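Troubleshooting: if your tokenizer reports a length mismatch, compare your output against this known-good record of 411 residues.
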Amino acid sequence: MRRVFLIVLDSFGIGQMPDAQKFGDIDVNTLRSCMSSPHFAMPNLKKLGFFEIDGVREMIAAHPAYAAYAKEDEALPARVARMHEASNGKDTTIGHWEIAGVISNAPLPTYPNGFPEEILDEFCRRTGRGVLCNRPYSGTEVIKDYGDEHVKTGNLIVYTSADSVFQIAAHEDVVPLETLYEYCRIAREILTGEHGVGRVIARPFIGESGHYQRTAHRHDFSILPPKDTMLDAIVSAGQQVIAVGKIHDIFAGQGMTEFMYTSGNTEGMQRTLECLDREFSGLCFVNLVDYDMLYGHRRDIDGYAKALARFDAMLPKFLEKMKQDDLLILTADHGCDPAYQKTTDHTREYTPCVMCGGQPAHKSDRSDASGEASASTPWVNLGTRDSFADIAATVLDYLGVSGDVAGTSML
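Known-good structure output:
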């Protein structure tokens, strides 16, 4: 009985891609920024060869301050790779779709000047409420600037970002949660075709004037993937797909047999550890969102570094509980450099891939980035991959499932 645990460290990029400037990003590197914090610590990922990934290895070698991460110590068998995003985007939806085997050649629509009048007119007609803001905005700043007017008038705060999102902020005492969710469903029905944004997001908040704060009751209403993903293939083969965190929302509930929401990274890992104790065959697909939501967008370097250190500290317990045929894959969906001050949006970056467990690599498979045999460590460096979709191909290959997904298996 084979199981794959695929954990997405949301926004944990490892260096800008060659086309980053086309997306408005210059000299971005989420990992490098986190390593500048005194709170950064990833000794367990180091044992799995994380710092041998293309680009990361060179960055470590070029900075004397990072010498501790170049020093050899205990090593565990693993395969590592740098993942190149083939899709035309840098957002959560497109990143996860590509991880699941669907490459998006056309970007999802964005609205740097706000949403067109015909969209908002229909939205207002169907909700019976007016609209405030309607432009790109920071989620924490928008409730500071428009919260009082919203509470006074009942009009909804509608805003967007550099991502393909239609976000609705409302005070929980003014608009009950279920009503806010219904407004999001209405927006989701309106936003189709050329205006088919990736996600409609409920952004509830609480508090008094001058002290508004967002709550954990966020809910995403995603557009359906344009074709079947690895999730659909696994379910069609009679195996299970357990979605943890916001995976259910990202894929609009498609291609999963079970899902569970979480309040953050800690609960996400707790639920994942619980899945390790269960009997099932298939995929446990996990999103840990705090890196992106709490630290990346808020440009909190120390917070991001601390969150990575907490995850790293939980890894030994996870590895200890893994069964012989379990495969663990760690990756990310885009970057969100907490040191980048030009914007507070995602950044176009390579992502890491670390695989361990499952069937061990044959000695003949061991190689460094140049393809030459390396008997000095149990790490297998698979170089820079052409697409995140190689993860989907690997998952299906390992589970013995056929599926029409992009990518090449890394097994």
